[in-house]
Design a protein that fits this description.
This protein is of the alpha+beta class. The chain contains 14 helices and 25 strands.
C-alpha cells in the first residue's frame, strides 16, 4: 500500500487506514491480463475499495488521492529515515545548510534530476509551484503550511533558499513545504480546471517512481515504471490498483491469488495469517492512524460541551476494539496517539459509562420522552451519523455499535453510508446541515505540530469539517512550533490535549495497527514505521 509521501499533509484516512481494510491507497495496472486471470509477468495488482479523486497534489486532502500522487510525483527535498523516523534524509535535495539566524535554509538539489520527459528538474520548478500554491484563490487545503515562510527563492537552477519569518523547532520541515510540478508543462495550463488542464486527472510528465498508464475511474488505475526516476527505475513492470466493491471481495481475490496485495477486515486477520500464498506484514505506524467520531459543531444541539461529553461516555470503545477491530487497535483518548512522544496519558478517559451519560444529558436539559428518546424544548435528540466509504465494513459496524450505544441512553441515531468522494463532499459542502456526527480517521503527522491544521479555524471546512474553534489551542500550537526544548514542547502539547479532551470536538476511539497481505511472489519488502512502500522501487516479482 502507498504511504502519503507528502509529509506536511495529514491525510484524511480511510477507516482503520488503508492498511487495515484494504490497500485503499495503493493499486496496480492490469498487468497485460484481465482481472480474473492468474498472476504472470513482472507486475502486481493491488485491490482497493476506494478510488482517488485527483492527481493534483494541491487540490486534495484524502489519503487515496495522496497515494496516487506519491506514485507519480517524487517526495520533496527531504524524506523520513525508515528506521529512525525522527531523522530527515536527503531526497531531491543533495544537502542543506541552516543559517546562524536559524531562519535561512539553503538546499542544493541533486545533480542531473530530470522529469519523465527528460527535461531538467530544477529549482525553478519548486519556485513556480510555490508561487501557485501560495495564492489563496488557488485553494490549496494546506496553504497554512506556507504562512511561516517569508521568502522562497531560486537563485540558480540547483539552489533553493527559504527564509522563515522566525526560528522554528520544525524549521526544516516548514521550509520543505513544496512537492514540485513541472513548470514547463503546467505554466500554460489552468491550475484549477481539469477540463482545461489534462495534467490534473492524467499527468503526462512526472518525477516519481511510476508514470500513469491509464485510469478507468472506479475500475482500475495502472502505473508503469518511470525510467528516469532519480532513485532508479522500479523493478516492477507495472503496478495496478483494482477497485473492488468491499473488503470481503478484496480478501477473496487475495486468497485466490487474483491480486497480489490487499488489506482486509480485522475479522479476516487470523485466516489471512494462515494462508500459504501470502505474507502478512504488520507495523505500528510512526504517524499513528486513529479513528474518531466527529461532531458537527454548527448544530445547536451539539454546541453544548456537556452533551458532547455525555455522548463520549455513551460509546463502548472496548466493544469497538474487541468486536470490530478484533483487538488490532489500542484505545486513545487524545488528539495524539500513544506512540507519539507527545502523548498525554493523563487526559480524562471517558470510558463507557451509560449511567454517567444519562445523568449528564439530564443535567443538560435533555429528558426522556414517552418513547424513551430524549427531548428538549420540543426537539428530539436525533443524530444523523455519516460514514464513508460505504464499502467499509469497519465503519459500518462502528456506526451500528454507536447507534445501539446511543439508544441505550435515549438518543436516536440515523446512519448513512456514502461512497468515498460523496462522503468527503458531504462533510465539506455548504450549508453543512445534512449531518450531525461522522465516523472519521486521521493519518497523523510524525511531528505533532502539523496536526494543528485539523483544529485551525482557517481550515474550516477542508480539514476542520466539524468547525471547531478555540483560539487558545491555536496559540499553543504556535508556541509548540517555536519551542526548541523538547521537554518544554511536551508540556505545550500536554496542554493542547487537555483542552481538546475537555472541549470534546471528537470522541477519540482507537489507534489502529497497520497490516496488509502480499503475495509471497513479491520480493524486496522491508516494513518500517513508515509502512512498507517507502522502498517500492526495490520491489520485484519472483
Amino acid at each position: 500500500m502507498l504511504r502519503n509521501r507528502f509529509r506536511l499533509r495529514p491525510a484524511l484516512a480511510l477507516a482503520a487506514a488503508c492498511a487495515v481494510l484494504v490497500a485503499g491507497c495503493s493499486g496496480g495496472p492490469q498487468n497485460e491480463r484481465g482481472p480474473g486471470q492468474g498472476n504472470t509477468g513482472g507486475g502486481i495488482i493491488v485491490a482497493a475499495t476506494s478510488d482517488g479523486a485527483s492527481f493534483h497534489p494541491y487540490k486534495t486532502s484524502d489519503t487515496v488521492s495522496s497515494g496516487y500522487q506519491s506514485m507519480v510525483y517524487a517526495s520533496s527535498l527531504t524524506e523520513r529515515d525508515p528506521q529512525d523516523v525522527s531523522k530527515l534524509n536527503p531526497s531531491l535535495a543533495e544537502s542543506w545548510t541552516i543559517g546562524d539566524d536559524r531562519v535561512t535554509y539553503t538546499f542544493k538539489l541533486k545533480p542531473n534530476l530530470v522529469w519523465s520527459d527528460g527535461q531538467p528538474l530544477t529549482s525553478a520548478d519548486f519556485k513556480w509551484t510555490y508561487d501557485q500554491a501560495s495564492k489563496p484563490e488557488n485553494g490549496w487545503p494546506y496553504i497554512s503550511n506556507l504562512e511561516e515562510i517569508a521568502s522562497y527563492e531560486a537563485p540558480d537552477p540547483q539552489t533553493i533558499v527559504v527564509r522563515l519569518k522566525e526560528p522554528l523547532a520544525v524549521g526544516l520541515e516548514q521550509s520543505d513545504a513544496i512537492v514540485p510540478l513541472p513548470k514547463h508543462v503546467w505554466e500554460n495550463l489552468d491550475w484549477n480546471d481539469s477540463s482545461k488542464n489534462p495534467e490534473i486527472q492524467s499527468p503526462s510528465v512526472v518525477s516519481g517512481p511510476f508514470k500513469l498508464k491509464e485510469w478507468a475511474k472506479d475500475d482500475h488505475v495502472t502505473f508503469v515504471p518511470n525510467e528516469r526516476y532519480f532513485k532508479g527505475a522500479p523493478k516492477l513492470a507495472s503496478y495496478t490498483i483494482q477497485i473492488v466493491p468491499d473488503a470481503r471481495v478484496a480478501f477473496q481475490k487475495l486468497r485466490a491469488s487474483e491480486v497480489d496485495e490487499s488489506g482486509f477486515s480485522p475479522d479476516d486477520y487470523e485466516q489471512a495469517k494462515r494462508l500459504d500464498n501470502i505474507n502478512v506484514y504488520e507495523w505500528w505506524p510512526a504517524t499513528g492512524n486513529w479513528s474518531y467520531l466527529g461532531f458537527n459543531l454548527r448544530q445547536p444541539m451539539l454546541q453544548d460541551k456537556q452533551v458532547r461529553q455525555a455522548l463520549a461516555y455513551a460509546v463502548d470503545r472496548k466493544a469497538i476494539i474487541d468486536k470490530v477491530m478484533y483487538g488490532l487497535a489500542e484505545p486513545t483518548y487524545s488528539a495524539f496517539g500513544p506512540h507519539c512522544w507527545c502523548y498525554n496519558p493523563n487526559v480524562p478517559h471517558r470510558d463507557y459509562d451509560p449511567a454517567r451519560a444519562r445523568e449528564m444529558l439530564d443535567q443538560a436539559g435533555w429528558r426522556p420522552g414517552p418513547d424513551g428518546i430524549r427531548v428538549k424544548d420540543g426537539q428530539r435528540m436525533h443524530i444523523r451519523l455519516l460514514y464513508g466509504p460505504q464499502s467499509s465494513r469497519v465503519r459500518q459496524l462502528i456506526s451500528q455499535i454507536v447507534q445501539d450505544n446511543f439508544k441505550q441512553v435515549g438518543v436516536e441515531v440515523e446512519i448513512t453510508g456514502l461512497e468515498w468522494v460523496a462522503y468527503l463532499s458531504a462533510l465539506k459542502t455548504p450549508p453543512y446541515t445534512n449531518w450531525d456526527m461522522n465516523v472519521g480517521g486521521w493519518s497523523a503527522t510524525i511531528d505533532p505540530h502539523w496536526m494543528y491544521q485539523i483544529w485551525s479555524e482557517e481550515n474550516i471546512p477542508d480539514l476542520n469539517a466539524g468547525a471547531y474553534r478555540n483560539p487558545e489551542v491555536e496559540k499553543l500550537f504556535q508556541q509548540g512550533a517555536r519551542e526548541f526544548d523538547q521537554a518544554k514542547r511536551k508540556q505545550i502539547y500536554d496542554q493542547i490535549q487537555e483542552i481538546l479532551t475537555e472541549d470534546q470536538p471528537y470522541i477519540f476511539l482507537h489507534v489502529d495497527k497497520s497490516y496488509t497481505g502480499i503475495s509471497k511472489r513479491v520480493q524486496g519488502i522491508k516494513p518500517s514505521p513508515l509502512g512498507i512502500d517507502w522502498n517500492i522501487e526495490e520491489w520485484s516479482v519472483k
